[in-house]
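User: Here's a protein and a ligand (V47). What would the complex look like?
Assistant: Let me lay out the input and then the predicted complex.
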Amino acid sequence: MKVILESSELLDILEKVEQGERLSREDGLALYRSKDLLLIGHMANIVRQRRNGDKTFYVVNRHINYTNVCKNRCKFCAFSRDEGEKGAYAMDIGQVLQEAEGVVKQGATEIHIVGGLHPKLGFDYYLEMLARLHERFPEVHLQAFTAVEIAHIAERAGLSLRETLRELRDAGLGSIPGGGAEVFSIRVRTELCAEKLSGEDWLEVMRQAHKIGLKSNATMLYGHVETSAERIDHLLKLRSLQDETGGFMSFIPLAFHSDNTFLKGHPRTTALLDLKTLSISRLMLDNFPHIKAFWVMLGVKLAQVSLDFGVDDIDGTVVQEKITHSAGADTPEELSVEEIVRLIEETGHRPVERDTLYREIVRPQSRLGPGWQIMEAQAPYGGVS
Ligand code: V47
Ligand code: SF4
């Protein structure tokens, strides 16, 4: 490819990628400095292809945001409210079950549950939510509560992280979503979310979760006040924990939206930054099986293009999303499976429906609805099968 041969700045990195060598912090910084998007994407695709071949994964899921009441009030968040404030809500368990019911009938395999840090909800609320969902829909995977919520739940319960995680797991928790990581930099956290769990504590929750066998995702919120170096350092911390535990399944860069936040007016991320961040994540996180484009934040069109920039997962149907839509997202809240499959096929990749743990799903006559099955003899969450 002509473009690649003409670009000499990154040739050392290209060689490392081709040899399967680990990239350094300096390499990461050079990648962010470079304007050679196509070469960066090409390198990311070498890794993507090596790990996942031509597969692009998606999941039939639904997001449920059970409460927007949050004691943290991060400056980048338009979703949260104080208790009693106009627009504040907290669902009772019956409502959560009702929200899940419809999509499970349509064949969802995953319910993704995230909310604010409600100062009054007790440990029983979280346990009962999981237990009743699990009892009613035993085949459905519950991916629930970010590391930040888990630390809050542990505090409410007066238990250690380990004990809290064990109880949540025993009640039906299947895995942990990647939210709340933001950027681990102390400078950024002090400026934007001083009340929030520190980066080190976020990593500790994940460490404890992985130790008891719970898998998780990881995210990075980018496009606000963080520097490229802070992004790379974030990725390096994740890579190091993954070396230790192997418990992360996918990494999801989250593009910041500023409407209705303290950072109102902050410009949207550009396509260049979005694609670079996805590609650089693929390159730096050599031990993560999957890189996911969350189309809700990225936009459907760019999410499609990102499949040729190192991304192998496009998330799923989602159905309802409040966090980014409160902050001005102009994407739909739901994509149909037909639409997801069309987007993937148009790029020449092979659409593969997965469950939360990346096991492939088979459906009778490829029809949605209950009755799906996990393909047998698959390594959970692990790349090429
Ligand atoms: O933790 C908050 C972020 C996260 C804004 O694990 C914002 O598969 C953009 O983590 N603009 C929640 N982002 C969502 C999340 C997630 C989403 C999809 C898949 C997975 C997964 C996880 O949203 C929060 C925070 O980092 N966020 N405000 C905003 N204004
Ligand atoms: Fe609360 Fe999460 Fe919003 Fe921060 S991002 S204010 S922790 S809901």
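Summary: The longest helix spans residues 228-245.
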